[in-house]
Amino acid sequence: MTETKTFDVKEIRKQFPILKQKVNGKNLVYFDNGATSQKPQVVIDAVANYYSTINSNVHRGVHHLSQLATDAMEASRDKIQNHINAPKREEIIFTKGTTDGINLIASGLGKGWLKAGGEIIVSALEHHSNIVPWQMLCEYSGTVLRIIPMLENGELDLDQYVSLLNEKTKLVAVNHISNALGTVNPVKKIIDLAHDAGAMVLLDGAQAVPHMKIDVEALDVDFYVFSGHKLFGPTGVGVLYGKEALLEKLPPYQGGGEMIKSVSFEKTTYAGLPHKFEAGTPNIEACIGLGTAVDYVNEIGMDLIGNYEQELLKYGTEQLSQFDKMRFIGTSKNKASVISFLLGDIHPYDAGVILDKLGIAVRTGHHCTQPIMDFYSIPGTVRASFAFYNTKEEIDQMVEGLKKVEMMLS
Ligand code: 7TS
Q1: Catalytic: 287?
Q2: For all residues of the chain together, what is the average pLDDT?
Q3: Which of the listed residues 102, 181, 184, 207 should we mutate to test ligand 1's pocket, taking the one with most ligand atoms within 8 A of CB?
Q4: Taking CA atoms, which of 45, 98, 141, 243 is between 20 and 30 Å from 232?
Q5: What is the tens place of the pLDDT at every residue in 222-271?
Q6: Phi and psi at residue 50, in whole multiples of 5°?
Q7: 397 lines ligand 1 (CB under 6 A)
């Protein structure tokens, strides 16, 4: 008999100690999940238990604790492999986060893979961390950066994308979901078109992994990167998935311990995957905590999480629509649980400060996506990004808060 899971947000909220807090005398409403998510007790315990029971360096000790720490870290790699359906565990590289994963690939491609005359395509919807590493790479390799333009509703202009692809295109690097607008990009189509043109694809999955089930094999994506801290895991750890054949060919990112097979002054040889890309002592407790976070979301069920968050998105959009002066920034058909908006000509920062006084944490500003803000000719937005522990009552609280904002500022 298959077990039918149910989604109980009240029970879920009990597992996140930080949510019990008061901020400025009010119940905390945490709507800044796009920046980082909160941690369930099991993840906090996993990190604490590591230090209180098995703290030791990994991959290098024969002693008991080192074996246990290594086993726990490698078990976490297996969990992540299963979670994103990577064909091999060697294809899962622990990084510091999304930014680090993108820089790892940019650095590797810069060492002989990309030459003057080659082209890289990114999109107008990218976080700065999926723009700047490629600009830096272009600067010293002579590669040219091309940009997929965006449409008014925050979707990508796919016709323009098709016309940008050509035999010079080496890599397409786009996000799976936009952090500023919530746009869910048609990544399978983007990948297939790139492959038809002979180009590789890197997906920035920072905002996708917390909200949906990812299947890197079905996507046939070449590289997929994300951050642990947005997936209810610790900070300082992230994941780079890469196809084995590509990672084998890519030169190492950093040199040092852990990433070598043998070292002499005459010749050094590198370790095999995944260790070739994991120089130095890793963030062991965070790697382990991320495995626990993956178990945790799977226990709830990614489908249930996604469905519930879509309910929050729908409810939030409806409730915010009652403001005459509401302007939604980003209205793509396929959207994650992110609402970016402006209320009349109230500056996002001013709205954010008043909401904070009411215990409501939203993000204001350009969200590290200045090109998107330039596209709309705005300084920034107010962004409410929901996670599965948020509630409709919290959305009501934000609506009440925004009424106060409007009263005070317009
Ligand atoms: N890519 C996307 C799509 C992101 O949303 C972020 C962080 C990053 C990359 C960088 O991730 P990091 O973990 O390496 O820093 N986004 C946000 C945000 O929306 N607000 O604060 C950080």
Answers
A1: no
A2: 97
A3: 207
A4: 243
A5: 999 999 999 999 999 999 999 999 999 999 999 999 999 999 999 999 99
A6: -55, -50
A7: no
